[in-house]
Amino acid sequence: MKISYECGPCFLRQAREALDLSTDDESLKMEIMGDIFKYLSTNFDENTNSNGTGSHMHRMIREKTGCYDPYYKEKIEGNEIALKYLPEVKRILEKDDSLENYVKIAIIGNILDFGAFTLDDDIESVIRDSLKKDLTVKDIEEFEQSLKTNDRVLYLVDNTGEIVFDKLLLEKIKEYDVDITIAVKSVPILNDATRKEALDAGLDEFGEIVEIGCGTVGYVDSEISDEFREIFDSHRFIISKGMGNYEGLSEIDLSSKDIYFLLCAKCNTISRDIGVNLHDMLLFKK
Predict the structure, then answer these.
(1) How confident is the prediction along the chain (286 residues), in pLDDT tens digits per residue?
(2) Which terminus of the chain has fewer Cβ atoms in its 10 Å neighbourhood, N or C?
(3) CA separation for the pair 118, 219 (Å, rounded)
(4) Residue 170 is part of which domain span?
(5) Could you tell me the pTM of the whole model?
(6) What is the number of structural domains in the chain?
(7) Domain end (from 23, 46, 65)
(8) Please, what sign has the CA dihedral across residues 109, 18, 218, 277?
């Protein structure tokens, strides 16, 4: 997906947060922010790829500060928030164990995203409000048919914290006798889930965990490993979580795939691209 003018302030907000989490050296922050200004000044236009630009920016910060995983504490916090709400979520599912409700819970988990929200946002109140909402777009009948007609699925996870709720949907998917392959980032970026966080959350109980071969913001087709490309190409049925994966996958030919996007539209650029309202929760087939 290509950027809009609103992506500029978002890039800079993410850069500031990542710098503050990576180093206390004010002079170094000034130097790196200057480098980011220079990079954006020559790479920010209507043809700019959002995921590639964000990934490059975070790599610049990591390489110059030496901080490998700046969102380490925030990832722990994300899991703690998700675990806090897990009993309430399970009570909801006990009352209504429909596939649609499991999908809704997994999408609510997508709210735990420090790439879209600021560190000061009241994410807990957003979760509480979202539990009361319905899905705006719900291709649930097609989704269930895909579960019934495919014997395996590739599940692209997104954020730490979110994966606590993904686990519930993965458990539901197993009821359809579908083999699950769970794809995670190979290198930490933002609060995205890597193999460590996926194992900590117990996702390996429901499928094989594989790495995409890079640490990018969302999916960047040019940066995945050859090993993961084989996995991706061999799967017809794909479940993609989150905005970052949508941004990247929407730029490639998916005509041979049975692919579903599960996300919360957390920014105006994404909302306009899909044709929905801000904060709408979506399950749609591409």
Answers:
(1) 788 999 999 999 999 999 999 999 999 999 999 999 999 999 999 888 899 999 999 999 999 999 999 999 988 888 887 888 888 888 888 888 999 999 998 998 887 654 455 545 566 666 667 777 888 988 999 999 999 999 999 999 999 989 999 999 999 999 999 999 999 999 999 999 999 999 999 999 999 999 999 999 999 999 999 999 999 999 999 999 999 999 999 999 999 999 999 999 989 999 999 999 998 999 999 8
(2) C
(3) 22
(4) 72-285
(5) 0.93
(6) 2
(7) 65
(8) positive
